[in-house]
Amino acid sequence: MSTSPGSGRGDATVHVIVTPNTNPAPRSAAVMKPRTAVRWSPRASATADEATRRRVQNRGAIHAAWRLHASHVRHSLEQGFYQGWDLHPAQLPSRYATLYAFFLEGVEAASERLLNFVGKAAQATLVGEVFDDAATGQGLLNYFLRAMSCGALSEEDAVRRSGLTLDELRSRSFVAILRGRRA
Length: 183
What we know:
Elements: E1 14-19, E2 27-32, H1 48-78, H2 92-126, H3 134-150, H4 155-162, H5 166-171, H6 174-182
Antiparallel strand pairs: 1-2
């Protein structure tokens, strides 16, 4: 079964392999198997026109493969899977471009949410209410940490946009940030 991101039927290409054995009922096992999107034909060209045509065709195939890979990376990021396992160095440009785009497109909303969240957490503490949603604050903090880690945001940008100090960001703990602000 082959699926594409957003199809609702899964996010992997799965092939069923039937293994021969002496048992009359065949055994089958589902395994993950990478697909090859670009096929190279390293034949020598007869003419300059043919060489140009093949270069254009290969460039188009590479760009199509990068677009496909970028859509898969974007889909994974949107589903909360921030780590990937790229099988080939040629996948790195599309991964980095997609990571940067993902974090930079969402940084304004995350910035506003984190600033409001820290402010409301401080208010809740001041009026004696129990603040029990630290997981949301930690998720927003993780967004900034991941954006810094991949290089989409510098430390200075993260400090400016998050409203946190560099030490607070480096603590990697939203609960520790709240405790430090209460003290």
